[in-house]
Write a structure and sequence with these properties.
By secondary structure, this protein is mainly α. It is built from six helices and no strands. The radius of gyration is 28 Å and the shape is elongated.
């Protein structure tokens, strides 16, 4: 009687399942995107404040050489812009919160039906609440980001009485800040730094020049301030 044949299949011990490696890689990418998302939003908010207030101050400076009028206008724009950004962000995030809370309630009911006891574990409930957005924090972060950019031209113009020098310093300080914000945004977005900086700087120059020119045109047409 012939002996039965035995077939042995060797499995390498050091071979890791590919799905585990991909899962770890995806987690690292997800963590990076989550960190970069709010940083980039902060940079964009600061850039908005910088361009808005610098352009507003340039517009007033086109028809009024008074330093106090220019600075007060800048501060008024800072307060209005920060409040507008905060309120808009609060309303937007609160709407998102309402949607996610309703979704969480539906998920709890589904889980309770699956468990057949009508009770959802406290651990799952706590984890779900921790993931919910915070409207107050989002509003505060948006206002602070806008204000951090808006304060740059105000500080640049605050200590200079000479009209032409003040305008030049505001433009120079705004340009440097725009280049810095553009570089930070490029690093976070993994894009070309030089191209990003150039795009942001040119956009800021266009906003300031258009505001200055159009306001001067209105002033020269007989509209008195």
């Amino acid at each position: 009687m012939a002996a039965p044949n035995h077939v042995q299949i060797s499995i390498p011990a050091d071979q890791n399942p590919p799905n585990i490696i991909n899962h770890t890689h995806d987690e690292e990418e997800f963590d990076y995107s989550q960190r970069a998302q709010w940083l980039r939003a902060a940079v964009l908010g600061a850039n908005d404040g910088l361009v808005s207030i610098a352009s507003l101050m340039m517009g007033v400076g086109a028809v009024k050489g008074d330093a106090m009028a220019m600075i007060l206008t800048g501060f008024a724009g800072l307060f209005a812009g920060a409040c507008s950004m905060a309120i808009g962000e609060f309303v937007s995030v609160y709407s998102q919160l309402d949607i996610e809370v309703e979704q969480m309630k539906r998920e709890k009911r589904s889980m309770a039906e699956i468990n057949n006891n009508g009770v959802v574990s406290e651990e799952n409930a706590k984890e779900s609440k921790e993931k919910l957005p915070n409207p107050s924090q989002a509003a505060l972060a948006s206002a602070l980001a806008f204000s951090s950019g808006a304060i740059v031209p105000l500080l640049a113009a605050g200590f200079i009485s000479e009209y032409k020098v003040r305008i030049g310093v505001v433009v120079a300080a705004t340009t440097l800040a725009l280049a810095a914000f553009g570089g930070i945004g490029a690093v976070l977005g993994r894009s070309g730094v030089v191209r990003s900086c150039g795009r942001v700087v040119v956009g800021g120059w266009m906003a300031m020049a258009m505001t200055f020119g159009l306001t001067m045109l209105l002033g020269s047409s007989g509209l008195k301030m």
